Amino acid sequence: MVSMKHLRLLGNISAAMLLVFAVACGPSLTLTDVDYAQPMESVAAPDQDGNVQDVRYGISFNVTPLNEMERGEGASLPEEVRFIRSTDGYYFVTAPGYSNVYVFEVEEQALDLYEVIRVSGAGLANPAFNQRSPHIQLVDGDVEYRLTKDGLAN
Amino acid sequence: MEKLTIRTVLATLLVLAVGFSGQVQAQFQSDFQIKQNFDRDHAEVLDHLKTIQAPDEVDQVNEKLDEMERRYRDHADLLNRVLYPETLQGRLTNLQELTQVTEERLQRLSESGDTIVVLEERIAELTTDATRYQEQADSLNNELAAMRRSRDANAAQARRLRQELDQRDAFIINMVDSIFVAYENVDLESLSPSERRGLVLEIDAQNVLGYIESVVDNNISFLDTHTELSTQDFLKLYGTQVEFDRMWENMGHDLAQIYVTETRRDERVSAIVEKIDEWEMLIDDAAWSTLSDAFSQNNIELAPFSNSLEFYTSLNTYLDEAIARAEESGGEEELAVYQRFADFWFSDVKPRWQEYLIDADLMTYENFNTIDEKLTEWKLHAQPTSYTMLILLGLAIVLIIILLVLWLMARGRDNRR
């Protein structure tokens, strides 16, 4: 026999479970089809500490670790750094003299290296990014590369 | 068939090569560079519009704008995004409108070009004279300062200084007048700020109002130093002050608009107005008190006056009372009073002061005529009955008596016969 006392206890447990479930889920909303594409690349000269910024797009970061990865520790900073954000929100960064394009994922107050795309053995002479959604176009003189976050596109 | 095939292949290759090279060039342009080029072209047109001098240069700008339209038409999407919230078309339209405004301005300018050339020449000429007069004024001011220290400076020296100051004041007033008249003929609104600055710089912006202020300063300084001048001198100075005041009323504020920056304008104008008021007060006091003294010294006691209306009223009252008095009891004494006034009026007031009283708007020709008419009326009433008439009357009576006696004697003689 199930007594009233048991029924009350069962009711209380059910209510508590519902409450826990509701709190655990929290407010849930996702906006989709976001286009992060920066219409034009940013060209910025690093300061003496290696910081670059583009006030127009509201971003600044330090390129020293990137430069060390490209050129080795203690190497001088490039005169300018070029970067652009793709439609899917990844930052593509390179500089004259670099052999690679570095793809970064956006984290909370950080850019995490997602991919390194090797484009030129001798180093890029005069690189420039163009937004060509869904690709990022990298031009260097007469040479063109079509890039995605995962590497060179076909 | 074989030839045709080779030619076809070659032609195809050539077309492909040309097409390919064109494609390569078009394909690998940096968006960033396109934007940089656009910014450079835009700035170039703006700079050209700022410095453009001749209407034919407008054609060059229009050509450049057409070229920009052709060059950037294909990049409109990119430029619209990177120029947001502006657009490529918006920027180009803005430049076209600016070009049109510039063209209209140049057209107006060329129409008034002759006037400007004349103005520039006149200003150059006046600047030289102004410098010379400024040097002269400095030396005069030194002399004035020395005289202030030594109060026994004689009137002749003061008069000489005064003449030199007058000369300079007249020059300054003419100069300012001349510049202003010249400016009035130029549509200042049609000139660009740099052109206006150019004209203004010609005559040292600081000095135009500086010259004006120096006229006021020198006169105040002179009036403070010299109280021994004659009535004529003071009336003459009164005229200068009135003329100056008129000039300032007419063009002072406009000159300040041209020569003084907006932030300092009110302060500068107020300072000059304050000094002009002080000058007016000083000359007003000096002129009316010496004029009153001059009448008193000639035993003509006018009712007190301290302005032109009171002076004229006082004269009229004096004459009306004299006429009424003469009507009642004319005679030797009244004639003497009349004679004293008439002597002073016709020997001093009219020949020596009339000109300055009229110049300074203190009296008019009509006022002088009225006084003259009243003097004539006064004279008529003041003159005692003529002795000649009395003698003639006496002689006539004597003659009548003689004739009567002769007639009676003749009649008596006849009766005796």
Question: Can you walk me through this structure?
Answer:
The complex is a heterodimer of chains A (154) and B (417). In chain A, 19% of the residues lie in helices and 37% in strands. Chain A has helices at residues 4-25, 64-71, and strands at 42-44, 51-54, 59-62, 81-85, 91-94, 100-107, 110-118, 127-132, 135-140, 143-148, 151-152. With 417 residues, chain B is mostly helical. Chain B contains 15 helices and no strands. Chain B has helices at residues 2-27, 31-51, 55-73, 76-82, 88-111, 113-149, 155-184, 193-202, 205-225, 231-259, 262-297, 308-329, 332-359, 365-382, 387-416. The chains are: A alpha+beta (154), B mainly alpha (417).
DSSP summary, beta strand count of chain A: 11
Proportion of residues in β-strands of chain B: under 5%
Structural class of chain B: mainly alpha
Distance between the termini of chain B: 189 Å
Overall pLDDT level of chain A: 89
Main attributes of the structure:
heterodimer, A: 154 residues, alpha+beta, five-stranded antiparallel sheet, four-stranded antiparallel sheet, 37% strand, B: 417 residues, mainly alpha, 15 helices, 86% helix, 0% strand
Short description:
Chain A has 154 residues and is α+β, with helices and mostly antiparallel strands. Chain A has helices spanning 4-25, 64-71, and strands at 42-44, 51-54, 59-62, 81-85, 91-94, 100-107, 110-118, 127-132, 135-140, 143-148, 151-152. The longest helix of chain A is centred in the first third of the chain and has 22 residues, at 4-25.
Question: What is the topology?
Answer:
The complex is a heterodimer of chains A (154) and B (417).
Chain A: H1 4-25, E1 42-44, E2 51-54, E3 59-62, H2 64-71, E4 81-85, E5 91-94, E6 100-107, E7 110-118, E8 127-132, E9 135-140, E10 143-148, E11 151-152
Antiparallel strand pairs in A: 1-4, 2-3, 4-5, 5-6, 6-7, 8-9, 9-10, 10-11
Chain B: H1 2-27, H2 31-51, H3 55-73, H4 76-82, H5 88-111, H6 113-149, H7 155-184, H8 193-202, H9 205-225, H10 231-259, H11 262-297, H12 308-329, H13 332-359, H14 365-382, H15 387-416
